[in-house]
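To fix ideas, we close by showing one paired sequence and structure record:
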Amino acid sequence: MFVQTIYESRITGSFRPLVLLALQKTSVKRNCEAGVTSFLFHDKERIFQVLEGTPEAVTQIAKHIRESKLHTDIKVRASMRCKIRSFPHWFFGATSSVDPYFKRAYGALHKQEFFNLDVVEAVQILQIVASRKRRSVKMDQFSVRARNFKTNRTPHALKNVRKQPA
């Protein structure tokens, strides 16, 4: 028997792609060790996340989430028992309001605001997005690698340009 906990929160500061990648890297490891699967949706201001696992594991991960400085005003929208996971292949899946997979799944419903949806509807939309993403990215081949960008390098397009005499 599993527990599914669904919460929403307000983002503090910026939730840029590199912040999400760093969060994903630590969350995949932590969730994998705890046996928790999860899927997160975010827009510019809020987060909606589904956590699934044993009651003890979900409680442990939820405690860590409450202590995070990435967000505030955490509200548990639902917590229920379930026999099967809604996101069995995702230790930490994520989508956003600008993700084409999300836009397509959500746009078909002709709804205005994701955060005003019933929890069941919201989870169903995220399941559709997760299944489409799973078909395009195989999680066993997926790895996050930090890039080392150097700002003192000359851009490729400017390497062969000669300086004009003054």
Remarks:
- DSSP finds four helices and five strands in the chain.
- Helices lie at 17-34, 55-67, 100-107, 119-136.
- Confidence is low (pLDDT under 50) at residues 137-164.
- The beta strands are 2-11, 37-42, 46-53, 71-82, 93-96.
